[in-house]
């Protein structure tokens, strides 16, 4: 098996609270993860800034008239790798990220002809930014939630940046350069995610018992 076959596709959902067109650290780190995945033959489009879309509250795949989630969900299901990026607010993931997790809960109701969730075989990674502590706590929430609804997690499935306590660098997007530790972690996240996604695409999970 080469690193170029079978072909893979990724989608990134940024859960920033900042609507377009303003700059966003969560969008930036999501794009960096996509670019790192691209180095392993994974194709991708633009980062989906969820706050720009009318994603209704709820836990169904479609919450009715005007709900933007069905179109976003379609992109997720068409992808092999999901990148979920969130800022840190008061030590927690954003409210937009929580809404995404709640909408993904609907995936527990959808299976293929062998009884497997439609998310089985898809790999998820997280990306967290903030000027305060909370990345490890948020990572735990992302890991549990995403795995619960069928996504697989590779080793080192999150990249993150937090400013030092009371530091001067208040926003990831304002850094003069990506810190070496973040760049290295992002590269590892992408390599491992692409590797696992390729393995799962070539050899899917067994039918549900």
TrEMBL record:
InterPro entries: Flavoprotein-like_sf (IPR029039), FMN_Rdtase-like_dom (IPR005025). One of its GO terms (molecular function) is oxidoreductase activity. Transmembrane segments: none annotated. It comes from the Bacteria. Coiled coil: none annotated. Residues 21-139 form the NADPH-dependent FMN reductase-like domain. This is NADPH-dependent oxidoreductase. It comes from Vallicoccus soli. The lineage of its organism: Bacteria, Bacillati, Actinomycetota, Actinomycetes, Motilibacterales.
């Amino acid at each position: 098996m080469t690193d170029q076959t079978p072909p893979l596709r990724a989608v990134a959902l940024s859960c920033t609270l900042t609507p377009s067109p303003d700059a966003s650290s969560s969008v930036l780190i999501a794009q960096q993860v996509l670019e790192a995945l691209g180095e392993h033959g994974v194709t991708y489009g633009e980062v989906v800034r969820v706050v720009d879309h009318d994603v209704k509250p709820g836990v169904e795949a479609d919450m009715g008239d005007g709900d933007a989630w069905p179109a976003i969900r379609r992109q997720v299901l068409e992808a092999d790798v999901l990148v979920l990026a969130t800022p840190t607010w008061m030590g927690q993931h954003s409210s937009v990220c929580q809404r995404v997790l709640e909408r993904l809960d609907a995936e527990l109701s959808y299976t293929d002809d062998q009884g497997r969730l439609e998310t089985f075989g898809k790999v998820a990674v997280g990306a967290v930014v903030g000027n305060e502590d909370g990345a490890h706590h948020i990572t735990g929430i992302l890991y549990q939630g995403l795995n619960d609804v069928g996504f697989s997690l590779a080793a080192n499935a999150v990249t993150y940046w937090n400013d030092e306590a009371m530091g001067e660098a208040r926003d990831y997007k304002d850094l003069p350069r990506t810190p070496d530790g973040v760049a290295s972690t992002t590269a590892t996240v992408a390599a491992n995610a692409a590797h696992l996604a390729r393995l799962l695409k070539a050899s899917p999970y067994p039918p549900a018992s």
